[in-house]
Write a structure and sequence with these properties.
Keywords: Proteasome. One of its GO terms (cellular component) is proteasome regulatory particle, lid subcomplex. The protein is built from 26 helices and five strands. The chain is mostly helical. The protein has a domain of 100 residues: Arc Repressor Mutant, subunit A (Orthogonal Bundle), CATH 1.10.10.10. The chain is globular.
């Protein structure tokens, strides 16, 4: 028989050891459609065909050849993922983070869960959220009442609790199996942090769908749920709940600054939350509520109440950087309205420095920079031109660039035309009333420019150049500028002219040293805040101390054995070569 070699042993896939006797291998090919064994061949000849990786992965065509299929893969090799399944997986993956936050008492895991909300909200729908809630809770779980409230808020109250996903939908009808599954489900407790996290997702969904009234009512329900609990692991989550609670109230009619706005009615709730947070040393909620109250008072122009709030409360030192930036911005705005421009400038400068550099916080950076530019102009300073050349700021700050140019030149007519042209933009930014104060600064700047250009100039010429009503107004403005130290000059009322004094060397004054001192102080403050913000593992110093003590004890024991002669250099193994 051709191909039959008695001294050769068959191996896998029909191969033979020793390839020199394979001349007649043409006769060994099996027919298509068979199992790999030719009729009439010896029983010793076997061809092993490897099994398919998946059932139904191989299909026979008309010729009997095997066609390989690619399961659920695109041409590039990437697996297609259902967005609904991916969103559910992202939501449920945060439950593990919340469990670890409670077990380890570490707020960083809660912060990671909250950071994922921004990516989840882009794919979140009422059906996906309802499915996540129904798969998380059962009708007998402790949080069933909260789950029912969540489903009612998103309009999916008909969805039953306890629904399982995937293959778990096909539950065995045997009572034993069902009892085991039920026991396993009841054994896993749903912590309150999961309730509040799903509530935050519900708030986000209602906010994105612009359901303001329903969102406000649900936020009150969620706040009542949080107030019944006293858990420090809920601090970061409760701060976010109060944030959306205030946001819903701001969108309801009548809108601020009306005194009938719903934001006035939520102040007692926020004040009570602040009082509770201070007593419980809840840093996150305390910082968030203080910022919300300041924003609330500023929206209705209650500046005195905002000032009282700042004077009677202490903002927590270890608050989150985002909350610190918001607090400094609102505090700077309050101080600017109170004519305390130096304090306002310091607060707004710190707010712009602490603002996040990512694209998500671009709006805050632009708003804080606009207010900072106006405050600098009110202080008599001219902002740096590089501020307006930033790619992310150039378009938003263009009206303010025109304003700065008019103030720098001292052209009162140009200033008034710019204010009239871009008045709507300034009102929308909340800087219009502060910009109206710049009229006197424009006049002072013009007087300063003329005092530098002319050694003596008549009041009539000042009146004509600054477009003032009369020479008496020019005389009053020049006298006030001399008294405020804007210019160094003398006023001759009899002859009706202003005579400038000779300017000395600015480096002979204290101004350069004071500027250098301010910059050094800002750098040292930034260094101190960076050191305070550093995080270290808990009880790590005790572990290092214990390891150091054990190392010293081993060294003493080995040194004692060396002195007694029990150890020699070979036994040390080179560890004590320096001794």
């Amino acid at each position: 028989m051709p191909g039959k070699t008695p001294d050769k042993e068959p191996v896998e896939n029909g191969g033979y050891r020793g390839g020199n006797d394979m001349k007649d291998k043409k006769d060994l090919k099996p027919k298509a459609g068979k199992k790999g064994v030719k009729e009439g061949e010896d029983e010793k000849m076997t061809v092993v065909v490897p099994p398919p990786k998946k059932q139904g992965a191989q299909k026979n065509d008309a010729d009997g050849d095997v066609a390989m299929d690619v399961d659920e893969k695109e041409e590039g090799g990437e697996v297609k993922v259902d967005p609904v399944v991916q969103t559910l997986s992202d939501i449920k993956s945060n439950f593990a983070l919340l469990d670890r936050a409670v077990a380890l008492f570490d707020a960083r895991f809660t912060l990671r869960a909250l950071r994922s909300v921004s990516s989840i909200r882009k794919r979140l729908t009422p059906d996906i959220l309802a499915q996540a809630i129904s798969e998380t809770y059962t009708s007998t779980s402790p949080g069933a009442e909260t789950a029912t409230g969540l489903l009612q808020a998103i309009g999916r109250s008909d969805v039953p609790l306890g629904r399982q996903s995937g293959n778990e939908m096909e539950i065995d009808s045997e009572p034993k199996a069902a009892g085991k599954n039920g026991a396993k489900k009841e054994a896993k407790e749903i912590i309150p942090e999961i309730d509040v996290f799903l509530g935050i997702l519900t708030q986000v969904l209602l906010h994105d769908n612009k359901q303001w009234q329903q969102g406000l009512e649900f936020s009150r329900f969620l706040i009542d749920r949080i107030q019944t609990l006293n858990r420090r692991t809920l601090d970061g989550l409760s701060a976010k709940v109060y944030f959306y609670y205030s946001l819903f109230a701001e969108q309801l009619a009548p809108l601020p600054p009306s005194s009938q706005s719903p934001i006035v009615s939520i102040r007692p709730v926020l004040l009570a939350a602040l009082r509770t947070a201070v007593l419980r040393k809840d840093t996150d909620t305390q910082a968030s509520v203080i910022v919300l109250l300041l924003r609330n008072y500023l929206l209705t122009s209650h500046i005195s109440q905002a000032d009282l709030l700042v004077s009677h409360t202490q903002f927590p030192e270890n608050a989150a950087n985002n909350q610190v930036a918001r607090y400094l911005y609102y505090l700077g705005k309050v101080r600017a309205i109170q004519l305390l421009y130096t304090e306002a400038h310091n607060h707004l400068t710190a707010a712009t420095r602490k603002a996040p550099s990512n694209v998500c916080a671009l709006g805050f950076s632009q708003t804080a920079t606009k207010l900072l530019l106006v405050v600098e102009l009110l202080m008599g300073d001219i902002p740096d031109r590089a501020t307006f050349r930033q790619p992310t700021m150039e378009a938003a700050l263009h009206p303010y660039f025109l304003l700065v140019r008019a103030v720098r030149v001292g052209d009162l007519e140009d200033f008034e035309s710019i204010v009239a042209q871009h008045g709507d933009t300034f009102r929308r930014d909340g800087t219009y009333t502060l910009i109206l104060r710049l009229r006197q600064n424009v006049i002072k700047t013009g007087i300063r420019m003329m005092s530098l250009s002319y050694s003596r100039i008549s009041l009539r010429d000042i009146c004509i150049r600054l477009h003032l009503g009369s020479e008496e107004s020019a005389e009053y403005i020049v006298a006030k500028a001399i008294r405020d130290g804007v210019i160094e000059a003398t006023l001759d009322r009899e002859h009706g002219f202003m005579k400038s004094k000779e300017m000395g060397d600015v480096y002979a004054t204290k101004e350069p040293g004071e500027t250098f001192h301010d910059r050094i102080r800002a750098c040292l403050a930034l260094h101190d805040e960076s050191v305070k913000a550093m995080r270290f593992p808990m009880n790590q110093h005790r572990l290092e101390l214990k390891n150091a003590q054990e190392a010293r004890e081993r060294e003493r024991e080995m040194a004692k054995e060396i002195q007694e002669g029990d150890l020699d250099e070979d036994d040390l193994g080179g560890e004590f070569e320096g001794m």
